[in-house]
Amino acid sequence: MNVPHASFFLKQGRFYVSVLSVGVLLLFIKELVFSRPKTSSASIEDETMSEWRRSPLWVEDQRPQINPHKFQYLKNHPYYCNNNEIDLLILVSSAPDHYEEREAIRATWAASGALEKYRTKVLFLLGQGKEQQTLVDQESNLCRDIIQEDFQDSYYNLTLKTVMGLKWTAIFCPQAKYVLKTDDDIFVNVPLLHAALKAQQTNQITGCIKNSPIHGFQPIPSGDNPQPMDMMPPAHPAFTAGAGYILPGPLIPELYIAALNTKFLPIEDVFTTGHCAKRIGAHPPLHDSRFSCGEMVTRECQMSKMFTGHKVTPEMQFSIFETLSEQICK
Q1: Does residue 36 have a pLDDT over 80?
Q2: What is the CATH number that goes with domain 49-217+233-325?
């Protein structure tokens, strides 16, 4: 059998993104012209607050905190998880104007049909959209997979997105056995990750561990005989790279409470899997080289043995997905 060259999939990917974008735009127009809202924004907010007040975290969240998280929901889908059994909830940190990245993810590894058999769900985490907010509103109404709060969407506030994800999961999806925090330029090999989680049943935070010697963040040494530079005391506790790390579901409420009582750091992976994890006794994290430490994916078949791959463009999402679907990697 002749196997198409990778460039074929790249072209196909660009075509699919264009077609999807046009199709979604037409659906947005349909929603605006023909659809009537079923509930008012006020009733949705009341419903959300009612659910929140029933959470055991409500009382704790009202106490004076070092790092309070008092932002309001702009977009929320409180019944996204319902009472369904969920093995893996994937929280994707995204930006309001990264529509093409989200569409590529929805059409590839996060396609609903592909995730059902793995009892996996995907949500996108956004901050305030400003000039993109109208488009975000339309996208959320159509796709119903966006959680958004009213803090400024910026690189400095990535930590707030992760804390938002912890808070939302603790309230609205407490049954999730595992949570994967990742970004919108990441390819996630869901079948491989799901199989590993089912087999290992880990109760540790897991990812690519990084440290912070004088010369900056580096992956942990891979051999048995680390060099002196590798052994230097880090400036922060060991932490897992934000490109993708696993949080066991039972730790989510504890991590959220710890986040409220830990001095804010703009480096979300250090904050969450380093300092907050240490505060609740869930430290150190477990290293697994199948999680990306930030290396760029250059070949589709790299992802056949990796859980996460970094710096993946929307076109590359399609190319990797098609390649893995064809099962042509050795």
Answers
A1: no
A2: 3.90.550.50
